[in-house]
Write a structure and sequence with these properties.
The structure is a single chain. Helices cover 5% and strands 30% of the residues. With 270 residues, it is mostly beta strands. Strand 6 (105-109) and strand 7 form a beta hairpin. The chain is globular, with a radius of gyration of 22 Å.
């Protein structure tokens, strides 16, 4: 797990094969495999012709989306309400996900927070999920239906229509900054998860081991900014044996914990 500080940097996660320095701003928001809808032409641009408008049946403006949707799951601990992460920060429409008051969550679309949607997962849906120390949260976005839903532990929110048509760009990057706490088990899928798959994550693999199709915690790279602390999860720390060696009078045991203090962004694989 990683321990982050609100005022001392952040961290970005991405697959090992992905180069986060490459720009994705030129990637179309909606596209077809043959021709993006905004593809410029020198002889006959679609937005100036009168004989072939962009809304004709041969060339509809609503083309097939890049993905069917997106789902993100993670475990975190935080004391205060804050922004958790930004999905696809370099895309045209980054998705910001944060924690609100009274157990609510907020999704913000676009860089200037013009479009936001609040979710309150207070409906008990899986009574057999045991609580633990982590806040387990997932959200799913169905681009075909333009609806989203948030899951938190054994609770779910209602499904809500989004304030704009959102299609995930496919950039498998999550940027965490601006909160005090711990995070682990970050996963991204390039489709909306089913309830069974969300339940499988909430129960740490009750049906089968899980792995995000776009980003998986078991195969991940990261680039820290400022100070970040990489350490064992609380579950592993709790299972460490108690030392039987007695501390000599006037001496303290030697520290063995290494702190991960990074001043320059590095690319490493967990």
């Amino acid at each position: 797990m990683f321990t982050l500080s609100r005022d001392r940097g952040g961290i970005s996660f991405y697959p090992p094969y992905y180069d986060p320095s490459s720009s994705t701003t030129n990637r179309p928001y909606y596209y077809t495999t043959n021709r993006p809808y905004y593809y410029p032409t020198t002889k006959r641009p679609y937005y100036t012709t009168t004989n072939r408008p962009y809304y004709t049946t041969n060339r509809p403006w609503t083309t097939a989306p890049a993905t069917r949707g997106v789902s993100v799951c993670l475990r975190y601990l935080a004391e205060s309400f804050s922004s958790l992460f930004t999905l696809s920060p370099s895309s045209r429409v980054p998705l910001q996900f944060g924690v609100g008051d009274a157990g609510s969550y907020v999704m913000t679309f676009t860089r200037y927070s013009y479009y936001s949607q609040y979710f309150r997962p207070n409906i008990k849906f899986w009574p057999n999920i045991r609580p633990d120390i982590w806040n387990r949260v997932c959200f799913t976005v169905d681009s075909m239906k333009n609806v989203a839903q948030v899951f938190s532990g054994s609770n779910i929110s209602i499904r809500k229509r989004l304030p704009l048509q959102y299609v995930w760009s496919g950039e498998p990057v999550m940027d965490f900054s601006g909160f005090d706490g711990q995070l682990t088990d970050v996963q991204i899928w390039d489709y909306p998860l089913s309830y069974r798959e969300v339940f499988n994550y909430m129960t740490s693999g009750f049906y089968a081991p899980y792995q995000g199709s776009a980003l998986s915690w078991s195969y991940i790279s990261y680039s820290p900014r400022g100070d970040a602390l990489l350490e064992d999860t609380f579950e592993l720390l709790g299972r460490q044996p108690i030392s039987n060696r007695r501390r000599k009078k006037g001496r303290w045991p030697k520290k063995t914990r290494k702190f991960y203090n990074v001043w320059e962004s590095k690319r490493e694989q967990l």
